[in-house]
Specification:
- The chain has about 325 residues and is an alpha/beta fold.
- The chain has eleven helices and 13 strands.
- The strands form four sheets. Strands 3-2-1-4-5-6-11 form a seven-stranded parallel β-sheet, sandwiched between helices. Strands 7-10 form a two-stranded parallel sheet.
- α1 packs parallel to α2 and α7 crosses α9.
Length: about 325
């Protein structure tokens, strides 16, 4: 197939594009290469993708309506994997306008391109953050997600609502994936595993929020990508049993679907740090801090719907995943011992 992968220079976008190329799809990767984190890391990811003759890169901003219209008109994509967004829960608190432009205006431009140019299926990134004030575990797609705790979560919830409206109005098949704490090689430098590794190797303390009492459904990147590509292949269809008198939130009588994608095995943050210490052969100096505004105390994904409908089964244990990240980090950065 010919696919557009937005955010192709980002963490999940890069790995997804690579998997699609390895199975002989044609991929056009889009990214604006902003400096939210090291653009050099993004360029290095793109260099790996460019080794494949079926990959082409387009530098453009999702919020540029003209550029997006031109791209969709020229390329005639069969399917779209929309993974580009302004990421970072805490950053949304200090820079809200960037999130609205990228995550809402940009999403509108992508879904309009899909609508007008015959795209067969739009798969897009949502987030576990939409569960907000929910405390019942594990998080299920059947739960209410009307109480987001951050602007980032609110923008992702709005993506889900926009997708349903387009599925209803225009029959566009859409699938939203609520990601749960993704980690692994080529990860984002603003995420905990990256920051912890950098500081432990430098002999600097690590900031451990909520005094380390968080639990997270840490999910290895290879497992995530397997789920994303399976979802791309499984085009959303109307749920013929959907009942408007008792509506099921993640399905509809139009071609619309929402899935959790996580590991289904929550891990205490302190255990995560302990595994990292074992892999690095060094102890961390922990700077215990209170919980940050907008943070969820715990996350835990119920992924049975994705397992049942597309065959998603995460298989990478924490020890293996962290070890692979550390091996990549040491090989890429060559930190001094």
């Amino acid at each position: 197939m010919k696919l557009l992968v937005t955010g192709a220079a980002g963490f999940i976008g890069f790995h997804t594009a690579l998997r699609l190329l390895e199975r002989s799809d044609e991929v056009v990767g889009l990214d604006n290469l902003n400096d939210y984190y090291d653009p050099g890391l993004k360029t290095a990811r793109l260099d790996m993708l460019r080794r494949h003759s079926a990959f082409r890169f387009v530098k453009a901003d999702l919020a540029d309506r003209g550029a997006m219209e031109t791209l969709f008109k020229a390329e005639k994509f069969q399917r779209v994997v929309h993974l580009a967004a302004q990421a970072g829960v805490r950053y949304s608190i200090v820079n809200p306008h960037v999130y609205v432009q990228s995550n809402i205006v940009g999403f509108l431009h992508v879904i309009e391109g899909c609508r007008h140019h015959g795209v067969e299926h739009l798969v897009y990134a949502s987030t576990s953050s939409v569960y907000g004030a929910n405390t019942r575990m594990p998080f299920s797609e059947q739960q209410n997600v009307d109480h987001p705790l951050t602007l980032y979560a609110a923008t992702k919830k709005s993506n889900e609502l926009l997708a349903h409206s387009y599925s209803s109005l225009y029959g566009l098949p859409t699938t939203g994936l609520r990601f749960f704490t993704v980690y692994g090689p080529w990860g984002r430098p603003d995420m905990a595993l990256f920051l912890f590794t950098k500081n432990i190797l430098a002999g600097a303390p690590i900031d451990v929020f909520n005094d380390g009492h968080h639990q997270r459904d840490f999910t290895y990147i290879d497992d995530i990508v397997q789920g994303v590509t399976a979802a791309v292949d499984h085009v959303a269809t109307p749920d013929t049993s959907w009942d408007s008198d008792a509506p099921d939130p993640p399905t509809s009588n139009v071609p619309y679907r929402i899935y959790n994608i996580g590991n289904q095995r929550p891990v205490a943050l302190l255990r995560y740090i302990a595994v990292l210490e074992e892999c690095l052969g060094r102890r961390a100096q922990k700077n215990l801090m209170p919980m940050q505004p907008g943070d969820l105390p715990d996350t835990w994904a119920d992924v049975e719907a994705l397992a049942r409908e597309v065959g998603y089964r995460p298989s990478t244990d924490l020890e293996t995943g962290v070890k692979r990240f550390v091996e990549w980090y040491l090989g890429y950065y060559h930190p001094q011992s």
